[in-house]
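PROTEIN DESIGN WORKSHEET
SECTION A - STRUCTURE
LENGTH: 216
TOKENS:
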């Protein structure tokens, strides 16, 4: 059965809202983005952006935009795709960006191009999708989002099982009012409480271990 998000009116409303707010956001953040880019470059001279393939709605692949917060080729070092609060791979500027959620803001570009939405299940990695159960695959029935119901409910403090359950609940119960509520709650979570920035004992839940070749 099609979800509410598959209805033509819902898709049009959500996409229109995403497009307008991403345009406004990118315009307002133009100067801050330039300052952040300069800080990252001055910190270690490496690439400003982190681009990685993610899986979106209906398994569509796309490249996500993020400000780089870790050393180059971080996924091939240390904990791989997993991150901890005391991770030595996180740069000085990266630590600040992560703390305030600024590293995620370039995803407004993904929202502008229609690959992502402002609100939706967080984008996932291919090796994770390959291990999804039929129920977990339902989180791919919506475009991935910069924020989500799972993010405002605890982020990395929750287990992957809990996060995916919330993602599916979001898809089943979607309303425009729910998106607005999640966006407002995101500001509180990111700027005030900062709950769930990292997982239990300071290390994020990896969901499942990545393939051996991803660790080399």
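SECTION B - SEQUENCE
RESIDUE ASSIGNMENT:
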């Amino acid at each position: 059965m099609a979800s509410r998000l598959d209805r033509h009116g819902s898709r049009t409303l959500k996409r229109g809202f995403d497009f307008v707010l991403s345009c406004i956001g990118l315009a307002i953040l133009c100067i801050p983005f330039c300052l952040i880019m300069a800080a990252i470059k001055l910190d270690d001279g490496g690439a400003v952006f982190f681009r990685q393939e993610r899986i979106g709605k209906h398994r569509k692949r796309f490249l996500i935009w993020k400000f780089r917060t870790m050393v180059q080729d971080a996924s091939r070092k240390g904990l791989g795709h997993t991150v901890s609060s005391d991770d030595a791979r996180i740069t000085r500027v990266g630590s600040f960006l992560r703390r305030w959620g600024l590293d995620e803001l370039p995803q407004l570009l993904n929202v502008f191009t229609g690959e992502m939405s402002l609100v939706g299940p967080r984008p996932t990695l291919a090796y994770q999708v390959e291990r999804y159960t039929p129920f977990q695959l339902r989180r791919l029935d919506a475009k991935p989002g910069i924020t989500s119901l799972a993010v405002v409910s605890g982020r990395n403090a929750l287990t992957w099982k809990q996060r995916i359950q919330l993602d599916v609940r979001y898809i089943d119960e979607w309303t425009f009012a729910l998106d607005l509520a999640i966006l407002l709650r995101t500001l509180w979570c990111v700027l005030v409480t900062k709950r769930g920035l990292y997982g239990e004992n300071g290390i994020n839940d990896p969901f499942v271990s990545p393939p051996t070749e991803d660790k080399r």
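SECTION C - NOTES
Residues 4-204 form one domain.
The two ends are 42 Å apart (CA to CA).
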